[in-house]
Design goal:
This protein has about 325 residues and is of the alpha+beta class. It is built from ten helices and 14 strands.
Length: about 325
């Protein structure tokens, strides 16, 4: 299902309160039979909503749903080129398909991704109305070489936005992950469309775990956490989206003018693996060493036998040596 129709939207709005609603009441609201009610419930379950049925009481969402609001995000960010969609295959793909007819900072956010992806082709688990699935377009006039440190800059922007919500102690792992106490909280996927010596069209994808439904957690093959576990108060995704847009706009403008150099000190503050023994995994090769941060090009600095060597881009993974 690529989108919810009008009846699906009505059902979603009804169930968002987390209370029980009888099949009869739902049927009357939608103007459909009880059989059709079951089909609409199944359709919502298929996109990751945890809806259950109790005989004599009706249907209920396992948790109340706070849905995204395009208007609220535009007001918080002060930007009108923000688009909220209910269901998409991928927010990155949505923007990539529209290049070059995009304006700088154009943003797409969705409640659910049916084909969300992470780095190296991995699936990004994307249950409905649970996390933040966010993509922003940015045009780098200086060309593709300027993009080498972009994921690091974006990671800093995400941490800055989280700190403005009062969430502390989130760290960064080169080149594109956010961690909290050794568990993955968020990931960044940047996709580029550029030719040599031409402008570089960048689509910046960000996925942040907000509230992981229990029935979705089994699909994840690494330690993870979410913001509602970290934070005492539930996270307002509209507020977070608005702050993130503002932070990205500010930092990306500075990055275009000055490069990564002004942000190195901030990265070193946030680097989860700084001065720790690590394994750098490159295809079938593992290079052991000590992580010494990054350089001005965004390359990882790895110390081996007292010699520091930069590594950048490509299919490289970084792991702590004891993992």
């Amino acid at each position: 299902m690529s989108e919810l129709n009008e009846k699906g939207n009505k059902l979603l709005a009804l169930l968002a309160d987390g209370e029980f609603h009888s099949g009869e009441k739902i049927g009357e609201l939608l103007g459909v039979s009880r059989t059709s009610v079951n089909n609409y419930i199944k359709a919502l379950q298929e996109i990751g909503l945890d809806i259950y049925k109790v005989t004599g009481k009706g249907y209920c969402s396992a948790t109340p749903l706070a849905l995204l609001s395009q208007q609220a995000i535009r007001e918080i960010s002060g930007m009108n080129n923000v688009h909220v969609e209910q269901i998409l295959p991928s927010t990155n793909e949505y923007l990539l398909d529209k290049i070059p007819n995009l304006t700088n900072g154009q943003t797409c956010i969705t409640e659910c991704q049916t084909a969300g992806r992470g780095r190296r082709g991995r699936q990004w688990v994307s249950p409905f109305a649970s996390h933040l699935y966010f993509s922003m377009y940015w045009r780098l006039e200086a060309g593709i070489e300027k993009a080498s440190g972009l994921s690091l800059l974006v990671g800093i922007a995400v941490v800055n936005a989280l700190e403005k919500l009062g969430i502390q102690a989130v760290g960064l792992k080169w080149p594109n992950d956010l961690y909290y106490q050794g568990k993955k909280l968020a990931g960044i996927l940047i996709e580029l469309n550029a030719q040599a010596s031409e402008v570089c069209h960048c689509v910046i994808g960000i996925g942040i775990n907000i509230r992981m439904p229990a029935h979705q957690a089994d699909a994840i093959d690494q330690p993870w956490t979410d913001l509602n576990t970290i934070n005492a108060q539930p996270i307002d995704r509209n507020h977070l989206s608005g702050l993130l847009i503002t932070e990205l706009q500010t930092l990306l403008a500075d990055y275009e003018e000055k490069g990564l150099s002004p942000f190195l000190a901030r990265w070193f503050e946030l680097d989860c693996f700084l001065n720790q023994d690590v394994n750098l995994i490159m295809a079938d090769k593992i290079q052991k060493g000590i992580c010494r941060g990054i350089n001005e090009q965004g390359a990882l600095l790895l110390e081996v036998d007292q010699q520091v060597t930069p590594y950048i881009g490509g299919e490289i993974s970084l792991r702590l040596a004891n993992n």
